[in-house]
What does this fold into?
Amino acid sequence: MTAKLLSMHGLSRPLLAYHEHNAGKVRPILIKRLKQGETVALVSDAGTPMISDPGYKLVCACIEEGIPVVPIPGASSVMAALVASGLPTDRFFFAGFLPPKSAARTKALAGLAGIPGTLVIMESTRRLAAALTDMADVLGDRPAVIARELTKLFEELRRGSLPDLAAHYQDAGAPKGEVVVVIGPPSEKPVDDDELDRQLGLALSNATVRDAADTVTAATGLPRRKVYNRALEMKKGEDN
It folds into this structure.
């Protein structure tokens, strides 16, 4: 895409690929050229650079070498999804990509559950249904938006609760394109015993009692002693 844009404007510049698989080798080359007085533009074909890509490490290397970095923001799927979602924007947390395996993903979601703001998560379309199912299990009946192909011809925003969206994509199959999931913040209502047991049950399925208690305490804001004691009771019940 970058080459096409340059050609459209009658520009000719040498291009060098810089991505996750070659960043370690290419980064020193770019730093050397910059220190020799050349100008380098980091251009992304998929939205603003540095968001979930190795551009972050290049910027860090430039800062270490005293090389100035000038930002020229482009389209950002994160910000575009957030502002179009209709969910609260005063506080939000960008979590990038979650782990691909369900157990690790569930643990990561449990760590995000207590954040008092909107969550913005990148996800592979082929894992979308499974990821939404885990999100519904861990985060509950929160409102969410699936933002697909943002700023492009086939842009789509699908709104609903996490359980409803999970059911939709389980039936419809994986969509095409790039996807951002925006999830509303947690409810401010108190966590009752049933909800505590639900969250502990999920946490205990792939963690020790201590780790499960820490995770659920962070997610609910409940006293750790209460959460830990209940986790012990549930674990003993499973073992008997």
In short: Residues 224-239 form the longest helix (16 residues).
